[in-house]
Design brief:
Length: about 120
């Protein structure tokens, strides 16, 4: 089972970037998905989550209005569109999958059974 994140890179403050997470040997439609991130010297934090069917999305407060999570189950792919990027958004971004029967909020890393390796996003002038 693999979750492969890609699309990271360097972007100037105020810019946009879209990261993707493609699953192999895993049917993503059976999983709620989230993006987490980890900045240097900081703990991993949850950023956004989407229900297995895509009807419900959830965001941490400081990315609301700037980030958008989406999914295409036919392509086994989850996306995170990031706009109005700030220096503080610099981090390694990870996608993660939890069973769709898992209840509760999306921000508990312990609920996730599959993790991608991450993609680096650097916001710098």
């Amino acid at each position: 089972v693999q979750l492969q994140a890609s699309g990271g890179g360097w972007v100037q403050p105020g810019g946009s970037l879209r990261v993707s997470c493609v699953a192999s040997e895993l049917t993503l439609s059976r999983y709620d998905m989230s993006w987490f991130r980890q900045a240097p010297g900081k703990e991993r934090e949850w950023v956004a989550g989407i229900s297995y069917h895509g009807r419900y999305t959830h965001y941490v407060e400081f990315v609301k209005g700037r980030f958008a999570i989406s999914r295409d189950n036919a392509k086994n792919t989850v996306y995170l569109q990031m706009n109005s990027l700030k220096y503080d958004d610099t981090a390694v971004y990870y996608c993660a999958a939890r069973n769709k029967d898992q209840s509760g909020s999306y921000n508990n890393p312990g609920d996730y059974v599959h993790w991608g390796r991450g993609t680096q996003v650097t916001v710098s002038s």
